[in-house]
Every structure is written in C-alpha cells, then in structure tokens.
Amino acid sequence: MSPSAPHWHGYYDSDELDEIQSAVVPATLQSGGNTLSVRVYEQPGNVPTVLIAHGLLGYGRTFARFHLPFWRRGWRVVQFDMPGMGESTGTRGAATVPQMMTAWRDVLSWVAGRYDGPRFVCGNAEDSVLAYYVLANNPEIAGISVHTLFEYGEPHAVGWVHPAAVRVIRPLFTAIDRVFPSASLPGQWTIPWKHVFAGADDAGYRAHLARDPHSLLRGRVALGRSLITPIQPAVPFEECTTPVQVIISRRSRIWPAAGVRRSAERLGGPREIIEIDAPHWEASRQFHDDYCRLVINWFDQWVCR
C-alpha cells in the first residue's frame, strides 16, 4: 500500500479497490443531529437494495468484502456508519442502542425516498439485532439475514462476558455513566478482538484495524451500558412475519451458537437457520464470498414475493 493511500486501502487487494472505487457513490443523511456517512454501491434501475450497517469494532470501509458480493450479483447496497463511528459525526464511541435504532429508521426512510424495488437487510454483528428490533414486520422489508439474534439483557447478548460479571458490570457502568458521562474504555478491553476476527490469518487484519483512526479505539461507558440494558423487541420473535435467515458460527466465542439457535428457533415466520463450521468471523475473501452466497440464496427466494 502506498504511504499516501487512505488507511482503509490496506484491508483490500488491488482488484477489490478498483471495484470499490468504481461502484461506490458517497452520500450523507441526517440522524439525531448527526451526519451519517453513507456509501451506495450503485446499480441502475429497479433492482433489489440491501441495507447494511456494520459491527461495532469496524465501520463501512473495513467491511467492503461483505458488500461487494451483493453488488456483483447486480444488487444495490446502501451501507452506513453509525453515529460517532467510522466517518459519521457524533461523539466517538458513544452511540447507545436507542440512537443506533434511530439511525436504522432514518436510513430506511432515506432509501425508501430514493429507490424502488425490494429491500433487504443484512447484519453481521450487533447490527443484526438492531436491524431486527427496528425493521421486523415492516412491510417495506422483504427479508432479513442476521449473524446473531438475542434480546438485549439476555446472558448470551454479551456472550464473551460471564453472566455473573454482567450482573456486577451493569450497576457499575450505570454509576460511572451518571458521575463521569465522558468515561470510556479501550475498545480491545471491552470486546476481545482476537475472538471477533478469528481466522487463522487475521492477526494482520486486527493489527491494521488497531491503527485505524476510524475504528472503535475507545468506547464510552454509556455505549457499554446500553448493550447490557434489557430492552424488549417491539416485535417478539414468536410474532415475526418477516422472513429471517440466521447464520450461526458454530465456533464463535462472541455469541455462542447454542444461545443464538435458541433465539432463532423462536422466530414465528418464515425462517432459515444455518450453522457454519467457522469461528465468529474471518477477514478473508473466501469467508465473505461463502457467507454472502448463503445470504444471496435466501434473499433470492423473496425477491418476487
């Protein structure tokens, strides 16, 4: 990578960079007083649109391998950075669950005002659950694919933390947030990065992410507190009618497979549950291509419904 190139170029091969730069049209939209950074992988005409946010550790430009397979399929991708994350404005690492839900609503409104055609939602981390909470049973959404599913406040919602520790952390974070609202913690303390990007060759990816000024280098205690605060979904899993695919990483040490499967099996509408023999996530091209192929096959079933 050239020393003068943007940091995010270091995540990709040269042919991928060519695709990204030819496909992406940058945009912005307003949400909760913040300006969200949006990347539209544009396609002409009335084609399906896939809405994607990002996991908390990275941001849109770090996950282009998760976007390109849909664009290569001929579909439009609208990807956005959460408030205070990536290239969006807002206090760094401070967005709470309700604020991120608002961002999802505002992005859907923005997309609905610009593009016709079926709309799908795809998440690969916390964005999976946020999307379900906001968009389940929304008639404007033809289908959803998620990589985890839980109710906020359940023990497996933060599966990398022992439940007994969560019971201690919750009141502690509440007290800290009340007295020191600007308090923050290093991102690698709060979520074990080595168990998130856990592929055999992912050490270089993690090191590059740790040097990325737009990654979650620090997270506000308010963010951590909101992730462990009980919140009921507006649509209980049993009452969901939107088609939902749940792809479970069998060897995940972030959201253990058993807990995700229990949530997935509660879904009342059309559903597909797939377990893949993989760690939580991998940075490789092959992993993304294989994963997205499963999602595309699911969405294909609902394009013309």
Explain how this protein is built:
Helix content is 36%, strand content 17%. The protein has 305 residues and is of the alpha/beta class. A hairpin with a 2-residue loop joins strand 1 and strand 2. Helix 2 crosses helix 11, helix 3 crosses helix 4 (126-135) and helix 5 packs across helix 9.
In short:
The protein has helices at residues 14-23, 64-72, 97-112, 126-135, 163-179, 187-190, 193-196, 203-210, 221-227, 257-264, 285-300, and strands spanning 24-31, 34-41, 49-52, 76-80, 119-122, 143-146, 184-186, 218-220, 244-249, 271-276. By secondary structure, the chain is α/β, with parallel strands linked by helices.
CATH topology: Rossmann fold
Which spans of ≥5 residues are poorly predicted at pLDDT below 50? none
First-to-last CA distance? 45 Å
At the fourth level of CATH, the homologous superfamily is: Alpha/Beta hydrolase fold, catalytic domain
Number of helices, where a helix is a run of at least 4 consecutive DSSP H or I residues: 11
Q: What is the count of β-strands?
A: 10
Shape: globular
State the helical fraction. Answer: 25-40%
Radius of gyration: 18 Å
CATH architecture: 3-Layer(aba) Sandwich
For the largest beta-sheet, the strand count, sense and barrel status come to:
8 strands, mixed
